[in-house]
TrEMBL record:
PANTHER family: RETINOID-INDUCIBLE SERINE CARBOXYPEPTIDASE, SERINE PROTEASE FAMILY S10 SERINE CARBOXYPEPTIDASE. Residues 1-18 form the signal peptide. It comes from the Bacteria. GO terms for molecular function: carboxypeptidase activity. InterPro entries: AB_hydrolase_fold, Peptidase_S10, Ser_caboxypep_ser_AS. The lineage of its organism: Bacteria, Pseudomonadati, Bacteroidota, Flavobacteriia, Flavobacteriales. The keyword Amino-acid biosynthesis does not apply. Keywords: Carboxypeptidase, Glycoprotein, Hydrolase, Protease, Signal. This is Carboxypeptidase. It holds the Pfam family Peptidase_S10.
């Protein structure tokens, strides 16, 4: 992919200051490129810079760093679908999907996602830019995005850092962006990874109910559902259990009769056991009978690769952190990754209840950090001395009044055009694939909307797109979802 022309550099100064005065409040840099994507040559532009967050009175509250890719070899560009992309954290920049999944550039990594030196980027022939324009947005304190305050004023943290506050100000920002870039007629999609799953569930209703911006699709990549995750409830332990089966299968720790089967043949068995046997057993707590408890522990050992006596010591509630430490403890003493259990780690000691570090996250930061800093400054030509926050200070995050599941249901009920796609990796131990399926069912308990929901699973982890085979497959699934849900299928009515 070749940069053709630097078109425009514009910086608007104001009497306000970002929290870091080196960050411009409203600035744009546009560069031009050509690429071969999905087998066809296209031309496109990358528009990157900062755009203000305005409050209801027109005051500037923050400035968000973004990168917007749009095709230039098309007619009626105002009608082309647009994807509005977020990552998670909360507190994570949009870097991950930007330069590894849907964008026109991807990391220099091997086919399984491991770092390669010298660090950098390369063309992404699987990007969905051929069918949709894409804007990658960095919420406040991520990337180069920062709050904006007058001299001697403090940052209003409650305005930004919470489930509801986050969706509200991002919806305001997106209204401005769509207006500035003439995309009101376009089919619109929002995509969020990890915490971004909660974000886009909440944002869908916020956009439709307060901005009157109706969507064609919500895409959740490895979504984190805080009604389930880290609750320590029986549901949490049971719903996540099939992930143990997937990770154990990958590391060849299951009994031979399971190990010789394909992963997708044994996961339905594990899911059935988790829902119909394990969950009721856990619900009984200390009142479970000894015979049943032993039978359940034996089956858990069978489907997880963890010894029965270890499971019994945990009263059938096997924490994921312990699993990451335990699975290979007696085989080679290594730990497995949290976000992607294909990765291995080395701890100080083989004893303990949780790994010392997350080997997959260390590997990813190894690849992504130099790549995004190089790409932004040298290719996109956004010049700054400000630190790019891969993870920024956003805590404490307000998780109260999290109605994201219900808000997505209401958004779907109110908009017959709105479809949902969920993408998950089987080896993700943080936001498991089975938990994502569970969330889909909880969004719509009536089952009346399930024909507009679809799930796609991949043989990788949290960022399934780091594995070359799944980078292609996940983008093809996303491309098909966009093409189908953006078609004119008649009046929006039931």
């Amino acid at each position: 992919m070749k940069k053709i022309l630097l078109l425009l550099v514009l910086t608007v100064t104001t009497t306000l200051f970002s929290q870091d005065k080196r960050v411009p409040v409203d600035t744009t840099v546009v560069t031009s490129y050509s690429a071969t994507i999905n087998g066809k040559k296209i031309t496109y532009k990358a528009q990157t810079g900062t755009q203000p967050v305005f409050d209801a009175n027109g005051n500037v509250k923050a400035t968000l760093f973004y990168t917007y890719y749009y095709r230039t070899d098309v007619t009626r560009s105002e009608d082309r679908p647009i994807i509005m992309s977020f990552n998670g954290g909360p507190g994570s920049a949009s870097v991950w999907m930007h330069i590894a999944y849907t964008g026109p550039k991807t990391l220099k990594i091997d086919d399984e996602g491991n770092p390669i030196q010298p660090y950098g980027i390369k063309d992404n022939p699987y990007s969905v830019l051929d069918v949709a324009d894409i804007v990658f947005i960095n919420p406040v304190n991520t990337g180069y995005s920062r709050p904006v305050v007058k001299k001697d004023e403090k940052v209003d943290k409650k305005y930004f850092f919470g489930v509801n506050a986050d969706a509200k100000y991002l919806a305001d920002w997106l209204n401005t962006f769509i207006t500035r870039n003439n995309k009101w007629k376009a089919p619109k999609y929002i995509i969020g990874e990890s915490y971004g799953g909660t974000r886009v569930m909440q944002l869908a209703y916020e956009l439709q109910s307060r901005q009157w911006m109706y969507l064609n699709g919500v895409i959740m990549v490895s979504p984190a559902d805080y009604k389930l995750i880290r609750t320590g409830a029986s549901e949490d332990y049971a719903i996540n259990f099939p992930y143990y089966t997937a990770a154990a299968w990958y590391h060849k720790q299951l009994p031979s009769e399971l190990q010789q089967k394909d992963l997708l043949d044994i996961l339905p068995e594990s899911e059935d056991f988790a829902i119909n046997k394990l969950l009721p057993a856990l619900a009984k707590g200390g009142y479970i009978g000894e015979t049943e408890k032993n039978n359940i522990a034996e089956k858990m050992a069978y489907y997880s690769g963890v010894k029965k006596e270890v499971i019994l010591r945990h009263n059938l509630e096997l924490p994921k952190a312990y699993f990451w430490k335990e699975l290979l403890r007696d085989r080679n003493g290594k730990t497995i990754g949290r976000l992607d259990s294909r990765y291995l780690g080395l701890d100080r000691t083989e004893t303990g209840t949780r790994p010392d570090y997350s080997p997959e996250l260390v590997s990813w930061l190894h690849s992504f950090t130099p790549a995004i800093n190089y790409y932004t400054q040298n290719v996109l030509k956004f010049k700054t001395d400000v630190k790019y926050n891969m993870f920024g200070p956003v805590h404490p995050w307000d998780f109260s009044n999290d109605n994201s599941r219900e808000n997505l249901r209401k958004a779907m009920a109110q908009n017959p055009y709105l479809h949902v796609l969920v993408q998950s990796g089987y080896y993700d131990g943080a936001t498991t694939y089975s938990a994502a399926k569970y969330t889909m069912g909880k969004i719509d308990p009536s089952g009346k909307l399930k024909d507009r929901m679809s799930f796609k699973g991949y043989r990788s982890g949290h960022m399934m797109y780091l594995r070359k085979e799944d980078l292609e497959k996940a983008n093809q699934d996303l491309r098909a979802f966009i093409l189908k849900s953006s078609k004119n299928v008649g009046a929006a009515k039931y």
